[in-house]
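Key result, reporting period 2: structure in, sequence out.
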């Protein structure tokens, strides 16, 4: 009962923050305000929006599990996002900010400005697929967390959290960014406390280091080329994710986005050590576990059920920091890349009504897909590979002007299809 009250209270607090941030806006509600915050996000809201993308639920669980199995090399998933932030800031930021001033609100729109409509539609498909994969996986992860924690069935947990996702998504980008301030604090504080206590439980940093195999301390223990491939893949995937692209359209200026990217890149390097230390401490204290990914909860639970609850809430916050935005992004893509270019609908009231209906429909589809993923980490890696194909195409297109639209289309179709299957 207490756990259920804590979860409900968390829903209410973050919801109130989101509504407060939204109501502070004096602008009339339009699709531009809903999708890109009227180009008004300050640095204070850009950073938590990007941070949420970087540590979205499942990647934190995966990092701890990887650290349990292979040590420091398990951090490259998170460090790859830091590389992606820097890569985006110096390679893509100027382009997306420029097309944002031309009226673009999505990644596919930007690709049409550089290439043509066919490439735009292909990018749309390869953007929607990862969003549905990740969102359905996150909904499944929430059900797995909430069901034993509150005593409710997984199906009811999916329904309740789905409704929360819907309400928060309808607040628009600015409201979601405001909620992410709270989510980010819960994530960092929760995992910081847990990591300190877990390391202390196994005798401190020195004892922990002396107790694990030497290869655990080698960040390249799985092979230099494997690490490079993983880091580059994650970095490229981040570079074409909806969140960094949207910040270019939503922020007050390109300078705000650049500063946000640098700040989040630094944070990602530091933050990676939190799940990393929990995973390595788990390797010392627990020699065998049913699943490596469960170490993020098993190690704190070894110390205290209360600490396990703290980690669960931090992981819960990590999922909530991205899921409503991903749901809104699905709507944004459909409206901006299908409804607007292929219909004559331009009235803002009708577009807003359609946007809200599409958000509900997208949520229903995600709920139908949830629970079917067999491996959270594998689903996320597949989604990242799809996005990396688009990143490579855009890099070539930006710096090699002789790349034809036809070559871009077939190259993306081939690469994206391989990543999908």
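The corresponding designed sequence is given below.
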């Amino acid at each position: 009962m207490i756990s259920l009250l804590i979860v409900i209270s968390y829903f209410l607090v973050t919801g109130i923050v989101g509504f407060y941030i939204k109501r502070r806006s004096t602008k009339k509600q339009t699709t531009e305000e809903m999708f890109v915050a009227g180009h008004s996000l300050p640095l204070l809201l850009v950073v938590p929006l990007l941070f949420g993308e970087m540590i979205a639920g499942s990647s934190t669980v995966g990092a701890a599990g990887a650290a349990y199995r292979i040590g420091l090399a398990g951090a490259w998933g998170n460090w790859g996002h830091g590389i992606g932030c820097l890569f985006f800031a110096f390679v893509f930021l100027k382009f997306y900010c420029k097309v944002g001033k031309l009226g673009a609100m999505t990644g596919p729109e930007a690709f049409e400005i550089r290439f043509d409509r066919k490439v735009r539609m292909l990018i749309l498909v390869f953007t929607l697929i990862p969003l549905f994969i990740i969102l359905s996986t996150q909904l499944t992860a929430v059900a797995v967390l909430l069901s034993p924690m509150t005593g409710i069935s997984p199906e009811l947990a999916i329904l309740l959290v789905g409704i929360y996702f819907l309400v928060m998504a309808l607040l628009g980008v600015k409201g979601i960014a405001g909620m992410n301030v709270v989510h980010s604090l819960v994530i960092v504080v929760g995992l910081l406390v847990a990591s300190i206590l877990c390391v202390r439980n196994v005798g401190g940093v020195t004892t922990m280091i002396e107790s694990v195999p030497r290869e655990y301390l080698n960040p390249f223990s799985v092979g230099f080329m494997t690490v490079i491939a993983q880091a580059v893949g994650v970095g490229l995937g981040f570079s074409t994710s909806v969140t960094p692209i949207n910040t270019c359209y939503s922020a007050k200026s390109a300078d705000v986005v650049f500063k946000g990217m640098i700040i989040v890149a630094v944070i990602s390097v530091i933050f990676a050590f939190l799940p990393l230390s929990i995973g390595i401490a788990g390797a010392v204290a627990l020699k065998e576990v049913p699943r490596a990914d469960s170490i993020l909860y098993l190690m704190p639970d070894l110390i205290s059920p209360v600490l396990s609850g703290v980690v669960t809430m931090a992981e819960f916050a990590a999922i909530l920091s991205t899921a409503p935005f991903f749901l809104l992004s699905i709507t944004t893509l459909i409206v901006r890349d299908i409804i607007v270019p292929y219909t004559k609908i331009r009235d803002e009231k009708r577009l807003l009504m359609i946007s809200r209906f599409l958000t509900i429909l997208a949520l229903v589809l995600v709920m139908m897909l949830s629970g079917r993923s067999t491996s959270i980490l594998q689903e996320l890696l597949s989604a990242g590979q799809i996005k990396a194909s688009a990143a490579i195409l855009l890099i070539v297109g930006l710096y090699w002007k002789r790349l034809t639209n036809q070559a871009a289309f077939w190259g993306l179709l081939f690469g994206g299809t391989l990543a999908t299957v």
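The domain at 31-420 is CATH 1.20.1730.10 (Sodium/glucose cotransporter). Residues 117-150 form the longest helix (34 residues). This case is discussed further under Risks and Mitigation.
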